[in-house]
Amino acid sequence: MKPKVFNVTGICVPELHYMVDVSKKLECIIHNYIGRDAYFTINRARQYGKTTTLRLLEHALKQSCIVVRMSFEGKEEYFTSLQSLAGGLCYSFRRALKGTQPELAHIFEPPIAAAYPMQEFSERISEFCRRANKRTVLMIDEVDKAADNQTFLSFLGMLREMYMARVDDGTPAFSNVILSGVHDIKNLKTKLRPEENGNYNSPWNIAAVFDVDMSFSPEEIATMLLSYEEDHQTGMDIAHMSQQIYEYTGGYPFLVSYLCKKLDEDKRPWTIEGLRMAVRDLLKENNTLFDDVIKNIKNHPDFSDLVEQIIVCGAQVMFEIRNPLIDLGVMYGIMEEQDGKVIISNVIFETIIFNYFTSVRSTYALTSTRYADKKQYIVDGRLNMENVLNRFAAFMKAEYRDEDGSFIERQGRLLFLSFLRPIINGTGHYAVEPQTRQNTRMDIQVFYGNEEFIVELKIWHGEKQELKAYDQLTGYLSARGVQKGYLLSFCENKKAPHRDRVFVHNGFEIYEVVVSCRT
Questions:
Q1: Which of 24, 309, 397, 503 counts the highest number of beta carbons within 10 A?
Q2: CA neighbours within 13 Å on the CB side: how many for 301?
């Protein structure tokens, strides 16, 4: 047998791949949905483990149910007409059943008549369910592929009619129907009929709300690392590594597996330093998930504005799922709720979005001459953060001119990250701490080599607020186990309130630079 590997493409198979133990999630689905005869949709972001979940669920149910599992991937021709759809579905049903239930597969063998094809197909389903000696479950993956076809609504309407007949008079129908895709059915309806703005009268209004958390918790990630450790005996601290992987990924299944894959295949040590190198390498790569994240921001200007307000300006946006932009962000896996506020769902997404904004927003002609000579910033392989801050402040004084100071909230953070990124690019990376991002302050973790630098960016609001900033920074330094921190304050005065300085506060060393933005 081939050794197991971490998989990030296609379906995951327990015999071939290191996988998180999701048995508790499956038990929840079986108890709360399958056992209650529910019809429902699993709509989650791309590469969130939907297809693998359906396969694992099928295997868990095969003793007690007859499962018809199929996908609309590559089935575009099914939706050219109702007859094509009925005929195509008969073909898919027959193919799914012929290996295990050949006598039932025969029901879907004769050609569909041209007249009333969906009614005939409905009768065949009833006959199938009548003759089955077990519960019947229909699973359809990639329902997004049917999004622009009116015939798909007819199919949903047929399933709804059968569901209602099952309840009303006991007409045989599927015990459960599970549809899986990125969009939920109301979004598909919107794509079909954009003129019906806000009208979500979907035929799928019979569906139960699916609220199972499909992200991976640190404890679930640990089950995968334990399996790997049994085979490779790296000596890793499984609990600590699981927590750190979760902090970077938010439990997003693709990102969890991808980081583990890089650690394994690039022969990185299973330590925090090794994980940081894996994150750095991942952020330099292009993949379909990152492409989707940026595409969804580029293709929706209003959504892009909301993301920028949250991630760059520190806007505190109340979480309201009925807000179409927030609903969009949740659907794409970019946003989630925390303490009633909207946040970006994980540090890796946050960083690639920051990188995107720093690359496309005008940053006042920040030219390559600032960082052409890395020797002024990198000394003996170590990042000199003092030089970075001082040169950035000098750049602002020499090249930035603005009379109203309006850039401070909107541009100051992007300016600094635009300045920093090419200096550390290739060897280091940065992450924004979501717990501290507010209108007045934002902590940035900069990783270079084996070192971590904490840089707090804030808006100058006087000495009293500055003392609070010192307390906040040292509190964060303590939590991160770092002895020295850096404070970069943007001040709209013509003259900085005091000179740059190094001092000790609460037992921690702070290097402070004040950027005076008016001239």
A1: 309
A2: 0
Give the C-alpha separation, 244 to 48, whole Å.
19
- Cα(383)–Cα(71) distance, integer angstroms: 51
- 81-86 LR contacts (CB < 8 Å, sep 24+): 81/151, 82/117, 82/118, 82/151, 82/154, 83/112, 83/114, 83/117, 84/151, 85/117, 85/118, 85/151, 85/152, 85/154, 85/155, 86/112, 86/117, 86/118, 86/120, 86/121
**Distance in angstroms (rounded) separating the CA atoms of residues 286 and 284:** 7
Separation CA 249–CA 347 (nearest Å): 6
Mean pLDDT per 10-residue segment, the chain (519 residues): 91 96 97 96 94 97 96 92 95 95 96 93 97 96 80 91 91 96 69 48 83 97 98 97 97 98 97 94 92 95 93 87 94 94 94 88 50 75 93 78 50 82 86 59 84 88 81 90 92 67 94 77
Cα separations in angstroms, 328 against 35, 202, 338, 372, 374:
31, 18, 17, 40, 41
Continuous segment of H or E residues that includes residue 452: strand 451-459
The token duo for 247 is 């902090």
Separation between Cα atoms, residue 280 and residue 283, nearest integer Å: 5
pTM recorded for the entire structure = 0.87
